[in-house]
Amino acid sequence: MIAFSTIKIAVRALRRNKMRTLLTMLGIIIGVGAVIAAVSITNGAKAQVEAQIASLGQNVILVLSGSASRGGFRMGFGSAGTLTQEDYAAMRKEIPGISGSSPEVRTFAQVAVGNQNVNTQVTGVGTDYLEIRSWTLSSGQNFTEPDVRNASKVALIGRTVAQTLFGDADPVGQIIRIKNAPFIVVGQLSPKGMNLRGDDQDDVVLVPYTSAMKRLTGQTTFRSLNVQADGPRQVTEVQDQIMALLRQRHRITPDKEDDFLVRTQQEIAEAATATSKTMTILLGAIASVSLLVGGIGIMNIMLVSVTERTREIGIRLAVGARGRDILLQFLIEAVTLSAVGGAIGIALGVGVSRLISVKMQWATLTSPGWIVGSFLFSAAVGIFFGFYPARKASRLDPIDALRYE
User: Fold this and answer.
1) What residues contact residue 234 under an 8 Å CB cut-off, 6+ apart?
2) pLDDT for 104-142, tens place per residue?
3) What does the pLDDT look like over 53-105, one tens digit per residue?
4) Cα separations (Å) of 372 from 41, 130, 286, 294, 359?
5) How large is the C-alpha radius of gyration of the chain?
6) What gap in Å lies between CA 86 and CA 103, rounded to an integer?
7) What is the distance between the alpha carbons of residues 72 and 190, in angstroms, rounded to a whole number?
8) Which helix (H) or strand (E) segment is 384 a member of?
9) With 0-12 CB in 10 A as exposed, 13-18 as middle and 19+ as buried, what is 385?
10) Containing H/E element for 155?
11) CA 126 – CA 171 distance, rounded (Å)
């Protein structure tokens, strides 16, 4: 009952100066709103990156060939063809725990049908490629192992290429010309959208890697291999076995660097989301400065309030109120200021993040954990910055307070 009366007195005191109360809460409102909006934007970007990496498939290991040097400059991993067809065959045969594997032979070529043509990416892959990438077909079927062995002129085309060349018609069974070589379309890929670099993944034609090497590029080696482990627990083991096998086959001694690079999907995801994590921390820290400023504002106003209400405090102490009752009253006022400001700030932050998502087409993700954490933190700011004024009020001498004018 006493606690309830103390709360009523605290709320009544805040309502007495509505404009001052609102201005005091403004720092908390802006701080919490900025934190929620900033974290929502960075979390949305991180989730979008993770979803795009997940579209690469599950439990995927990427093997890149070594780096080439031109004019004294290293071109980076994947620029030199140090992975042979024999390496690929040995991996499939000797390493257990692999559920699928596929090379990638990339080139750009002019693809034509009648008077329609498009310059697009043509990728030579194996039959496991679609399963590794979790990529389905909207029509038709995948090419087969005999197609790969015989370097058959068959192709799967992405939605963007299909719409450019055939419009809304079904391309399955049609003949396209890739560098003047005729290929039969056996399937159309389901849409994938943009990748991490912002490239259209549907602007692609997939052919057997043997066909790409013999008929399109003339390459005899691979620049990258996709390997899928049986499960997440086998990823590290398969990665180690691939590295050991390639070092043995390439006769790399312990004192020499590898002429290849092996990366797991988890490593790729961590590298891709590292920037998002840094931005989340940085933006959160910057926005938290507003909370600090808001807390200082609360302390300032509460000190002013104690001065203005010195006589009121003296009367309450004279009629039997204890110091802890006064302490509780001013603490409740400070916490109410920060908690209500925090709630308004949360609503503001969620609203701003959704507005940004709609107007600017940015992916945003509002985490319930951050909402609860922001509210609790704003309440803690009220307690921390309101304690000193409340303690000062509770220690006033009743006689001096009654004499105060």
Assistant:
1) 59, 97
2) 999 999 999 988 889 999 999 999 999 988 889 999 999
3) 666 667 888 898 875 444 444 444 444 568 889 999 999 899 988 888 999 99
4) 17, 42, 19, 19, 26
5) 33
6) 12
7) 43
8) helix 368-394
9) buried
10) strand 154-157
11) 21
Question: Which residues, 6+ apart, have CB-to-CB distance to 340 below 8 Å?
Answer: 25
Distance CA 378, CA 340 (A): 9
Q: What CA–CA distance (Å, rounded) separates 382 from 282?
A: 24
Return the structure tokens found at 107.
């080139």
DSSP for 60-126 reads: EEEEEE-EEEETTEEEEETSS--EEHHHHHHHHHH-TTEEEEEEEEEEEEEEEETTEEEEEEEEEE-
Instruction: In whole angstroms, give the CA distance from residue 202 to residue 194.
Output: 8
Q: How far is CA 326 from CA 3, 164, 305, 392, in A?
A: 11, 76, 13, 10
Instruction: Determine if the pTM surpasses 0.70.
Output: no
User: Which amino acid type is present at position 240?
Assistant: D
Please tell me the distance from the alpha carbon of residue 231 to that of residue 94, in angstroms, as a whole number: 18
Which are the contacts of 105, defined by CB distance < 8 A and separation ≥ 6? Answer: 123, 124, 125, 209, 212, 213, 217, 219, 222, 223
Structure-token match 């933190």, residue found: 377
Of 27, 24, 25, 20, give the one whose Cα is nearest residue 288. Answer: 27
* Count of CB atoms situated within 10 Å of the CB of 19: 7
Pairwise CA distance, residues 403 & 405, whole Å? 6
Question: Rounded distance, CA 227 to CA 243, Å?
Answer: 12
